[in-house]
Specification:
This protein is an alpha+beta fold. The chain contains six helices and five strands, in the order E-E-H-E-E-H-E-H-H-H-H.
């Protein structure tokens, strides 16, 4: 076991972990941040997506040694108390949330995209959403929510 320091949702944290231990496991089991979900363990579903140093990353295959010193944002870090982040609100308003399993990953993907590209092209938006699988809601509602998030972010 080694000690690693990471900043998670603005808080400096030190965790003991094996170098190849996955960041998803650290977040869920050691830091009790359960928003990122285990889905596929092979980078294909996106349920485990978080933001690492400003970039959307799938935490199920992200080794702890690579995360050392990183700034990490999880879905828990977006809302302010009971006030939802505009992306969270947009997906709810668009009816893009059903079981909620994939939703945190989609939110974090959109957060990373809209932080660097507040008015993304259709291709950028499609590429971001294509990194996620949803078995419940349907992609039309998710796309509608993503477009609504763009508008909400401009207003906030």
């Amino acid at each position: 076991m080694e000690k690693y320091t990471i900043t998670v949702n603005g808080i400096l944290r030190t965790v003991e972990a094996e170098p190849d231990e996955k960041l998803l496991d650290i977040l869920r089991e050691k830091l009790h941040l359960t928003g990122a979900k285990r889905g596929c363990d092979n980078l294909s579903c996106g349920a485990c997506t978080i933001v690492v140093n400003g970039k959307a990353e799938k935490s199920c295959m992200y080794p702890m040694k690579k995360a050392a010193g990183a700034e990490i944002i999880t879905v828990e870090g977006l809302s302010k108390g009971m006030e939802l982040h505009p992306i969270q609100r947009a997906l709810i308003d668009a009816g893009a949330v059903q079981c909620g399993y994939c939703t945190p990953g989609i939110i974090m993907e959109l957060y990373a995209l809209l932080t660097v590209s507040p008015d993304p092209s259709d291709n950028e938006l499609t590429a971001a959403l294509d990194r996620h699988l949803c078995r419940c809601t349907g992609y039309e509602a998710i796309e509608k929510g993503a477009r609504l998030a763009i508008e909400y972010m401009k207003k906030s």
